[in-house]
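May I ask you for just one protein sequence along with its backbone structure tokens in two labelled lines?

_____
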Amino acid sequence: MAVQEHFEGFDTAPDEMSRSAQKREAQGIRKLADKISQLGDQAFSRLQFPDPEVKEAFVKAISLRRNSDERRRQLQFAAKLLRSFGHEELEAQIEAMNNTSKEDPRAMRLEMLREFLIHGGIKGVNALVELIPSIDRNKLRTLVKRAHDELSSTLPDRPAARALYQYIKAETKRADVEIPDHMLRPKEKSVQG
């Protein structure tokens, strides 16, 4: 009886990626490049790029006309740079941006409450104090005033609005209250004619 010898050639995983796997990875990176190019200015500025050259490639692609061949080629170039510098960190950052509302399902309601407070003035503050009697009225009023004053600013960053959001998030969680629907939209000012 012949003894079958063990042949390692077929039993071990290949060291190289198959051509199909390489194409799938390249398509995934290309889709990532498309997502990055479609981000807003604030979200784009928060991204930490692996290399300044990659960021420059995206800035140039974003400045080009949408649906043009130049933009498509520039995005292909940016994707090529991402492949060489590593794309995992950028992918994680974009995933984190997309998951903020999934992590906290109340996020959208809290943002609408913040806008209600900013545009509602003292009536909005009184409505929230009525809902949560233990809330510090003076601190809330100060945060609302700062956020309202920030509206006239041309800066893209709104630290006072962010502080107001964090405060109402903490207070509603601490008080364990549900935000009523009438507090989610700023009241339209009636126009008398």
Residues 23-98 form one domain. Confidence is low (pLDDT under 50) at residues 187-193. The chain has ten helices and no strands.
